[in-house]
Amino acid sequence: MSRQEIIDDLQIQLGYCAERYRAAPDGTEEHRASIREYHRVFKELISITGTIIGLDPDSELPDMDMPKDYVDFWL
C-alpha cells in the first residue's frame, strides 16, 4: 500500500469515527469510544504526514472533541 493510500484510508477512518460519534448518544461509552478512536487515528495520520492536514468537514467533530493540535492549528 502506498503512503498516499494509507493517508486516504486514515482519512476515511476519521469519517467513520465522526459518523459513529454523531450516531451515539452523548455521554455513552460508545460516544466516548468514538472520540478515543478518532484521536488515535488522527495521531497516526499526523505521524505519517508529518503535519496537520485539512479534513473534510464531515470528518470533523465539534471543536470541543477534536484533537487540540488540530483546533489550535486551524483556529
Give a nutshell description of this structure.
The protein is mainly alpha-helical. It is built from three helices and no strands.
Explained architecture:
There is one protein chain. This protein is mainly α and 75 residues long. 65% of the residues lie in helices and 0% in strands. It contains 3 helices and no strands. The termini are far apart. 16% of the residues are buried. The mean pLDDT is 96.
- State the major sheet: none
Helix content: 55-70%
Quaternary status: single chain
Secondary-structure element string: HHH
Structural class: mainly alpha
User: In angstroms, what separates the terminal alpha carbons?
Assistant: 33 Å
Low-confidence sequence ranges: none
Number of helices: 3
Strands, helices and their partners?
Blueprint: H1 3-23, H2 29-49, H3 68-74
Helix pairs in contact: 1-2
Task: Jot down its keywords.
single chain, 75 residues, mainly alpha, globular
